[in-house]
Amino acid sequence: MEIWHNPSCSKSRTALAALEAAGHAPTVRRYLDDPPTALELLEVLDRLGLEPWQLARAKETREAGIDRPREPDQRQAWIDALAANPRAIERPIVLTDDGAGTVARDPETLAQVVG
């Protein structure tokens, strides 16, 4: 299990604490310090079943100047923009050992991941 973690984010801290309290020992990727490549983002998007604009944080996207249409032909441009601006990536992302993943922001989703 891996968590893409931002220690400045309360939801990310909550998710990590819940995983650890449930006995999980996730690999912690501080994705602001170790930004994902475009290829890694593509793989994570596939695992999550999301489009890149669905993984983008609105405020940080605006601040980074990412202003692209949310259209299939812009998918790679969005991925490249998120890779170049990791603050704009939603958090926390939890990738499970079975190849699945989720954005564990809300308590219900987190509870499903924690088990």
Structure summarized in a few sentences:
By secondary structure, the chain is α+β, with helices and mostly antiparallel strands. It contains five helices and four strands. The mean pLDDT is 95.
Account of the 3D structure:
By secondary structure, the protein is of the alpha+beta class. The chain folds into two domains: 1-31 and 91-115, no CATH class; 38-89, no CATH class. The protein is built from five helices and four strands. The chain has helices at 10-21, 38-48, 58-63, 75-84, 107-114, and strands at residues 2-5, 27-30, 93-95, 101-103. A four-stranded mixed β-sheet has the order 2-1-3-4, sandwiched between helices. Helix 2 crosses helix 4 (75-84). It is globular. 29% of the residues are buried.
Q: Strand order of the main beta sheet, please?
A: 2-1-3-4
SSE arrangement, N to C? EHEHHHEEH
Q: Biggest sheet, open or closed, and with what strands and sense?
A: 4 strands, mixed
Number of strands: 4
Number of domains: 2
Gross geometry: globular
Mean pLDDT across all amino acids: 95
Estimate percent helicity.
40-55%
Query: How large is the radius of gyration?
Result: 14 Å
Low-pLDDT residue intervals, each spanning 5 or more residues = none
- What is the CA–CA distance across the termini? 13 Å
Number of helices: 5
Share of residues in strands? 5-15%
Structural class: alpha+beta
Which descriptors apply to this entry?
four-stranded mixed beta sheet, alpha+beta, 41% helix, 5 helices, globular, 115 residues, 2 domains
